[in-house]
Amino acid sequence: MDNITLKHNLLHNITILPNEFIDHHMIKADGEYVKIYLLIQRLAGENRPIQAEELADTLELTRKDVLRALNYWKKEGLLDFGEEETPGASFAAADAPAESAATCMTSPAIPEKTSHSAADMEKSIKGTDLEQTVFMAETYIGRPLSVSDLNSLFYISDSLHFSSDLLEYLIEYCVTKGKKSVRYMESVAINWFQQGIDSVPKARDAASLYSKNVFPVMKAFGIAGRNPGPSEIDYIMKWNSLGFDTDIIIEACNRTLLATHQASFPYANRILEEWKKLGVRNVADIRSLDQKHHQAASAAGQAKSQGGAAPSQPKSTNAFHNFDQRSYDYDNLESRLLDKNRR
After folding, report:
1. Which tens digits make up the pLDDT trace of 25-47?
2. How far, in Å, CA of 50 to CA of 88, rounded?
3. Half-sphere exposure of 73 toward its Cβ, with a 13 Å CA cutoff?
4. Model confidence pLDDT, tens digit, residues 45-97
5. Cα–Cα distance between 56 and 235 in angstroms, integer?
6. How far apart are CA 215 and CA 157, in angstroms?
7. Can you give the pTM of this predicted structure?
8. Which residues touch 39 (CB under 8 Å, ≥6 apart)?
9. CA angle 260, 266, 270 (to 5 degrees)
10. Furthest CA-CA distance within the chain
């Protein structure tokens, strides 16, 4: 009894939550917002970096869900961050996929969600098409739906104006992806609402576009054994919106691996944004840009070898060109990558 060892030091294994949060903020906040706030408290307690993508992946939410929650807590006065950043010094806001101005202008405002009691929900759903949809959802998910779940389905049906057919397709679509969280279904429904997807055919087309590029991108990056995270899906869907065919997106992924030796979605995103600015429409356009680049580099090398100063080039302010570039023999690396893919 002389030597007593404390096996679990609770002081280093707990997250302290202010009573003010429980008494005044938790009771009126959305459940997902509360979960995000708790996870931020957990990470901050260990001085770990806080990134929107990590929060989204951990809680199986979309990045937009996380950003809505962060902005909510900022308005509540519990978080503080600048206009051009998200909370935490290490938030990778610069790497986040930015929506185009046109998208921001044309996307409809998201209707406000209100919560109803169990009695109100039962009264509102009884005898409607939604009652049958709820039964179908419980069958697919494998459990009775909670009041929060019923509120989400009612919100999708009543406020987002999803028909019963579209709502049922939404449930099937999410379950087949292994996502049985009704809150996740609500997030997908909001994304569809903002994209103007208001019918089953439009939803099928969107799902087809998702399947067309998501799996080839994951394969090109060498990512296997898991589904893409919400932030990765956001990038891929953005690349779809740029109007690029799959072969161009895969080309950007290949060049990202050659340059960074890792599956960097932000790096590939900058390549594709640069190609969009340069008017790239097909792989031939990319080869043409490569040829011009090699010619310019060759001319600069010849001038230097002849003792003359290389032609001065204006410093680009474009983020794509402001990377710390590595020096590689790209022709050799591309040839090796193509040989590897063929094998």
Report:
1. 888 888 888 888 888 888 777 66
2. 6
3. 24
4. 766 667 777 787 778 777 778 888 888 888 888 887 654 444 433 332 222 33
5. 14
6. 31
7. 0.45
8. 55, 58, 59
9. 90
10. 87
* 201 pLDDT tier (thresholds 50, 70, 90): very high
CA atoms within 13 A on the CB side of 58: 16
| Structural contact between residues 221 and 257, judged by C-beta atoms closer than 8 angstroms | yes
One-letter amino acid of 303:
A
Give the whole-angstrom CA distance, residue 257 versus residue 268. Answer: 9
123-135 pLDDT, tens per residue? Answer: 888 888 899 999 9
Long-range CB pairs of 14-19 (<8 Å, 24+ gap) are 15/41, 15/42, 15/45, 16/41, 16/45, 17/41
Helix, strand, or coil here: 329?
Answer: coil
User: Span 239-259, mean pLDDT?
Assistant: 89
Q: Is the dihedral of CA 154, 158, 164, 168 positive or negative?
A: negative
- Give the pLDDT confidence score for residue 318 in this predicted structure: 47
- With tokens 């990038």, the residue in question is 235
Q: Is 99 exposed, middle or buried (0-12, 13-18, 19+ CB in 10 A)?
A: middle
